[in-house]
Amino acid sequence: MGPKHFLLPCFLSLMMMMMMMISLSLGIKHETLYNICSQTQNEETCVKILETDSRTDSSTLPQLSLISINLTRNQAIQNLKKFVQLSQSQNPTADIHDGLLLKGSYEDCVIIYKLILKKIEVAYALSKKGKYKEIIQLGQSQDLAYRCENGIPPNWNNYSTAGISEDMILTCEASASVNLYVANNYVPKAYYENVQNMND
Question: What is the reported pTM?
Answer without folding.
Answer: 0.79
